[in-house]
């Protein structure tokens, strides 16, 4: 599938792996893809994020992602669902951090001592990339869509990764929605 990616989309995927490695995490997740998109200064996704005002609020996005990471990657919706069962995620995080230090729940204990190298893609990132392919195919079938193809094969651009992030459940989609970036708004500016 990677051969279907544009240069911009490939750079997003490679940058996401870099974010994962710098964070000391075991697998590349959807959040790393979002961070990689925020780093970009060119490409259709960058243009869309700029048009939606997100590039001026990247600090807020990064803070929201850090807060979710502190909650061991739980979205607010997941934390709310647990609260409905009587489990206070904030209290658990506070107690763990009291004993083990701030950010203790964001570190994967299996990663301690892990040497650097290529990080595999986790389920959330794989799901985003599959959804990006679906988005590329769906958009290529629209009569007004700008169709990009290589030898009759639909090409996946960085804009498709952004669109996929907006529709996938989880932290990245939740953070984007909280900042006014939805599938509809991205589609509109594209």
UniProtKB/TrEMBL annotation:
**Which keywords does the record carry?**
Repeat
Task: Tell me which Gene3D superfamilies the record gives.
Answer: Clp, N-terminal domain
Give all residue intervals belonging to the Clp R domain: 2-190
Taxonomically, the superkingdom here is Bacteria
Task: Report the SUPFAM superfamilies cross-referenced here.
Answer: Double Clp-N motif
PROSITE patterns registered for this protein in UniProt: CLP_R (PS51903)
UniProt-recorded name of the protein: Peptidase
Q: Which organism is it from?
A: Streptomyces camelliae
Q: What is the lineage of its organism?
A: Bacteria, Bacillati, Actinomycetota, Actinomycetes, Kitasatosporales
